[in-house]
Amino acid sequence: MNEHALPAGRAGNDEGAGRPTREEAEEAVRTLIRWAGDDPRREGLADTPSRVVRAYEDWFAGYRQDPASVLARTFSEIAKYDEMVILKDIPFSSHCEHHMAPIQGKVHVGYLPRKRVVGISKLARLVQAFARRLQIQERLTAEIADALQAELQPLGVAVMIEATHACMTTRGVHAREAVMTTSRMLGIFRENAKTRAEFLAAIGK
Ligand SMILES: Nc1nc2c(ncn2[C@@H]2O[C@H](COP(=O)(O)OP(=O)(O)OP(=O)(O)O)[C@@H](O)[C@H]2O)c(=O)[nH]1
Ligand SMILES: [Zn+2]
């Protein structure tokens, strides 16, 4: 994917299809500083537009990552290991697509391998690839689970996310302690209550 391309299905309309230049992005930040009520020319804010644009490259790096390639390298010599693999408490930061405000929390991922396993760090990398985009928590949950199911073809996948949404905790309704929980259970985790319960117990739920 070239540097200016947006992934299919996320470019939206014609206006969204082309990536703006860095200078255009910095100008947009100056506009927002003025909208907030400050003067983008004052000393402390002079370098802020370029910092914000660099921060965006970090926060939204997921648009330039291919989640499938994160899972491409798998291991099949697993000595008939046929139990669940679980990685819990994977921390993540994302941004809600409604307010572009931070979503912060943790993801718990489990799967029951059929023939192949993936390097455990790749589960965390997969989470980051989807989190570093504009998201809603439900879609983030589904995308992680569906990618694992498609790429590893395990007997099942379980994903649970617990997160706070700054758009709810710092503004609007100001529900400071509210934590949103979402989950997606596929295959045997959906069909078999005992398997699902084993996953939930392992992550302390
Ligand atoms: N379901 C879901 N809602 C989210 C997520 N992130 C933010 N929201 C909600 O998206 C909604 C947007 O609602 P709107 O009424 O269009 O926006 P708003 O006027 O700013 O709403 P308030 O936040 O209630 O002031 C809010 O209720 C947010 O709390 C998410 O990941 N999932
Ligand atoms: Zn929001």
UniProtKB/TrEMBL annotation:
Protein EC: 3.5.4.16
GO biological process: one-carbon metabolic process; tetrahydrobiopterin biosynthetic process; tetrahydrofolate biosynthetic process
Highest taxon of source: Bacteria
Binding residues annotated for Zn(2+), in chain numbering: C96, H99, C167
A Gene Ontology term for the protein's cellular component: cytoplasm
PROSITE patterns: GTP_CYCLOHYDROL_1_1, GTP_CYCLOHYDROL_1_2
Class of this enzyme: hydrolase
Protein name from the UniProt record: GTP cyclohydrolase 1
Organism this protein belongs to: Enterovirga rhinocerotis
Gene transcribed to yield this protein: folE
